[in-house]
Design a protein that fits this description.
This protein is an alpha/beta fold. The chain folds into three domains: about 60 residues, Nucleic acid-binding proteins (OB fold (Dihydrolipoamide Acetyltransferase, E2P)); about 210 residues, inorganic pyrophosphatase (n-terminal core), CATH 3.90.1640.30; about 130 residues, Diaminopimelate Epimerase, Chain A, domain 1. The chain is about 40% helix and about 25% strand. It has 14 helices and 16 strands. The strands form three sheets. A six-stranded mixed beta sheet has the order 11-12-13-14-16-15, with helices on both faces. The chain has a five-stranded mixed beta barrel with strand order 1-2-3-5-4. It has a five-stranded parallel beta sheet with strand order 7-6-8-9-10, with helices on both faces. The model has no long low-confidence stretch (mean pLDDT about 95).
Length: about 425
């Protein structure tokens, strides 16, 4: 009994006087022996006959596969997968995100089944690393640590080169790149026929990509970290996700209660990420977490570094008082060592820890960046890092290259250090305005 199937050719191997063809269809993959050679990535319709060893096939029609062909096959496979999933956090945000989580889980399961070629970028901190642990439990690919919040044109061109011969290629960005500054890079990689998936919890810009991000639907929801969201995707795909709280501890999220052990693991991962600046470090991170003596030694060193920094920072903690808000300008370059732990962001966070019980706005200043940390009392008085950045960009567009972040933690890239005195004055004005709004 003959049956007909149509789909995209994934692989062709010479088999004596025949060709062994692997075909991806909307029902899954099938392999058959053919007298006729076909090219990879062709779209073929084939008449199949069962044989003692599988199937033999006669090619009925053939043509180059289009993007619509890929999408049609993926949609058919999505419809064939049934997922019974409930999020760990049952609230309005996760109820809204549930459909997106299931969609990502299905797509990654399908991608794994089809053997799609993937590049997976993860942000260089505990949250990004936990995200990568979760997603690589579903789909394998080339993994790269990413030390920027932006997916740049250079990143896109590197990925295009890496995936140019790949099958149904895809890029997955974890804990970064849902911002406006990543639009150009994402548009370029999409134009090369590469699917883009982003799991992020930073403020969202509408992009030409598949995005799982609570900011699509809600504001000030960064506590749903990328590591948490990626772990929910892994859970929906039937995988184990046991490092969620490490992600939350790393980003100081109050979504769930975290233990001292969670905080320690996050600190060790942050320490390691500072020194592992490029490449596939996931196996190394796992290894360190599993080796008790090495883990303990790194934890001690990380805590020692933080204590040193905190003592140095204390000398700079002199507030500028603005209508009940204390603004602290901290020169992080005085303390930071290039490519050393802690990073400028972590140094600013240490300054914040010293004054977090005040209505404080802490600004870490370096030659090329501003790093914002806001205490709860300042936020309750109407001051938000996002709003500060928006107003600064509007008033001094020439002074900044890019920037963004959360309501209480964000960063801005400065074009020229000569702007810093004027920027500091404008920050004071912006804080005063936000209090009055």
């Amino acid at each position: 009994m003959e049956i007909e199937r149509e789909g995209i050719v994934k692989d062709v191997k010479r088999l004596q006087d025949k060709f062994l063809v692997e075909l991806i269809t909307s029902k899954g993959r099938i392999t058959f022996a053919s007298n006729e050679y076909v090219d990879e990535n062709e779209y073929v319709r084939v008449s199949l006959s069962p044989t003692p060893k599988g199937f033999s096939g006669s090619i009925v029609t053939r043509r180059n596969a289009s993007k619509d062909d890929f999408e049609s096959i993926l949609e058919g496979l999505r419809n064939s997968i049934k997922i019974d999933y409930e999020p760990l956090i049952k609230d309005e945000v996760m109820n809204k995100l549930k459909e997106d989580v299931v969609r990502f889980a299905k797509d990654f399961l399908i991608s794994s089944m089809l053997g799609r070629d993937a590049v997976i970028h993860f942000h260089h901190d505990a949250d990004g690393i936990v995200s990568a642990f979760a997603i690589t439990s579903i789909i394998k690919g080339k993994t790269f640590q990413h030390n920027s919040a932006i997916y740049s044109v250079k990143d896109a061109l590197n990925d295009i080169q890496s995936l140019r011969f790949g099958f149904m290629p895809m890029v997955i960005n974890l804990d970064f790149s849902s911002n406006e500054e990543s639009r150009e890079g994402i548009d370029i990689v999409k134009a090369a026929g590469i699917d883009v998936y982003v799991i992020d919890h930073h403020p969202y810009a509408e992009l030409n990509a598949n995005v799982l991000n609570p900011w699509k639907y809600f504001e000030n929801c960064s506590k749903y970290t990328a590591g948490y969201l990626s772990s929910e995707v892994a859970r929906a795909a039937g995988k184990k996700a046991d490092m969620i709280k490490v992600s939350l501890a790393g980003d100081k999220s109050d979504l769930m209660d975290v233990s001292e052990e969670d905080r320690e693991k996050a600190l060790v991962l942050d320490f390691l990420a500072t020194y592992n600046v490029y490449g596939n470090n996931l196996n190394f991170y796992r290894e360190v977490l599993s080796k008790k003596e090495l883990y303990s030694t790194i934890l001690i060193k990380a805590n020692e570094k933080l204590l040193e920094v905190r003592e140095e920072i204390k000398k700079q903690m002199k507030p500028v008082e603005v209508k009940g808000i204390n603004i602290y300008f901290v020169k992080v370059d005085v303390v930071a060592r290039r490519s050393e732990f802690p990073s400028k962001g972590k140094i600013t966070s240490q300054a914040y820890e010293l004054v977090k019980d005040e209505p404080a706005v802490v600004i870490g200043i370096s030659e090329r960046s501003l790093i914002f940390r806001l205490a709860d009392e300042a936020y309750r008085k109407g001051v938000s890092a996002n709003k500060m950045i928006e107003k600064l960009k509007e008033r001094m567009p020439h002074a900044f290259e890019s920037g963004g972040g959360h309501a209480k933690a964000a960063a801005l890239r400065i074009r020229n250090p000569d702007y810093i005195p004027a920027i500091k004055e404008e920050i004071i004005n912006v804080v005063e305005e936000l209090i009055n709004e």
